[in-house]
Amino acid sequence: MRRAFASVRARATLGASLVVALALVAAGAAVLLALRANLTAQAEGRADSAAREVATQLLAGRPYAELDLPEEDENPVQVVDDRRRLLAASEDLERISGAGTAAVKPVAGSGGDGTRDGQADGTGHGDADEASEPGEIDDDVEYSSGSATVDGDRADYRFAAVEVSTEDRGDLTVYAGGSLADEQSAVSTALTSMLIGFPLLLAVVAGVTWLVTRRALRPVAAITAEMSAITASEDLARRVPEPDTHDEIARLARTTNETLTALQTSVERQRRFVADASHELRSPIASLRTQLEVGAAHPALLDVEGAVEDTVRLQELAADLLLLARLDAGEKPGEARVDLAALVGEELSQRTRDRVEVRTELRSVEVSGSRSQLARVLGNLLNNAQRHARSQVTVATRADGAWAVLAVSDDGEGVPPDERERIFERFVRLDDARTRDEGGAGLGLAIARDVAARHGGTLMVREAPSGGAFFELRLPGPAVTRR
């Protein structure tokens, strides 16, 4: 059992750790992506600002060699024309990729010597260039990723491409890079922190889950130990400990104790049943043996009638015990259609030794069940009524909605209110019943109620209009489903 609990704790710990690990990985990935996107956007913003600053200088007519370019290690710059020729670039730029061109030195005649285009031939067209109308800078910007080596230091950049339309130098494109060093450093730092922190957090989660699960399962261990002790000792009076919580384990303990209580009640009931049955069987068997022994020794003294009565009583008791055993075993009543009025007529026609008159008020009503068991119920109710009636017994059948009703009443002394449930217990006989009929074993009414319950009905007793006992059997009709 300890291994089982350890397995439960291990599975709970593993499950919690996996869930937390998945959540941490998802959250970490989201954080890294958001951080990278944010810092990349910042680099793009710096690149765009640098490119537009250079583009503004180009619109102002400043020569390529005199362009005020940003610091090379922060924002490497290229200016290219519509034929992808490099016209200007950062001074210490040694290598570049992902920008306008792989060249790092301006082409000859681009004005890199400090003169502007159109002045190199000495024709004076430069004055016209200086007086030309400014063009425009395209609002759209395109971004690309690349790298650049400036003064021996290589770094990754995000390049912004801004187009400039000039009247004297045509269409130009300014490429300026925004360093991704901050983005790479921040992402690297965050990733390192996650790689260190996540395992520590998982270890904490696993440890806490293990301890919490162990504490939660401790009552289960106590319940299991007590159940093992109950099984070993066969002492059904013992109960498992109930924790002072309101969780599933507390409900399990309460349910277990309720089951033990029901089991103890059932076992005690069976023990009483066996003891009472033995007691009831002992009397007729002893009487019958005595009579047979006397008859064997003195044939003239044999009481044949008494022996027959003891044999019949023993046979009836055995039949009652057998029926109770079948009912306790869950025997199903069957689905035969039984007309209660016809059943009453058939039963009364076979009763020839009734002490008082039986009056009938019969209306045809059908039920579904076992004809033999229902006949036993009717016979037991009639026997009980005959035992207590002064002058008359009444049997009635009728329909009451979806229910069929069979009522047996007498004009005897009735049943005291505080004894009306007790008389349905097995082997229970009231004092007056013992004096009236020494042959009664106290099983008739118990059998009647058990059969009624098996048929989905009820059997109750109350005071009859004549002052005696009024037994009412209510059974569901064929259209009503038994539960």
Description of the molecule:
The protein is of the alpha+beta class. The protein folds into three domains: 233 residues, no CATH class; 81 residues, Helix Hairpins (Orthogonal Bundle), CATH 1.10.287; 141 residues, Heat Shock Protein 90, CATH 3.30.565.10. Strands 1, 2, 3, 4, 5, 6 and 7 form a seven-stranded antiparallel sheet that branches. It has a five-stranded mixed sheet with strand order 9-11-12-14-13. Strands 8-10 form a two-stranded antiparallel sheet. About 6% of the residues have low confidence.
Features:
483 residues; alpha+beta; Helix Hairpins; Heat Shock Protein 90; 3 domains; seven-stranded antiparallel sheet; five-stranded mixed sheet; 49% helix
On the 0-100 scale, what is the average pLDDT? 83
Series of secondary-structure elements, N-terminal to C-terminal: HEEEHEEEEHHHEHEEHEEHHEE
How many separate domains make up the residues? 3
Output the number of helix runs.
9
Q: What profile does the largest beta sheet have?
A: 7 strands, antiparallel
Q: Total number of β-strand segments?
A: 14
Shape: rod-shaped
Q: Point out poorly predicted stretches.
A: 112-133, 432-439
Beta strand %? 15-25%
* Helix/strand structural class: alpha+beta
**CA(first)-CA(last) distance:** 38 Å
Rg over C-alpha atoms, rounded to the nearest angstrom = 53 Å
Measured as a percent range, the helix fraction is 40-55%
Question: In terms of topology, how is this protein built?
Answer:
Layout: H1 2-59, E1 77-81, E2 86-89, E3 93-97, H2 125-130, E4 136-137, E5 142-150, E6 153-166, E7 170-179, H3 181-233, H4 248-297, H5 304-328, E8 336-339, H6 340-349, E9 357-361, E10 366-369, H7 371-388, E11 392-400, E12 403-410, H8 431-436, H9 444-454, E13 458-463, E14 469-476
Parallel strand pairs: 9-11
Antiparallel strand pairs: 1-2, 1-7, 3-5, 4-6, 5-6, 6-7, 8-10, 11-12, 12-14, 13-14
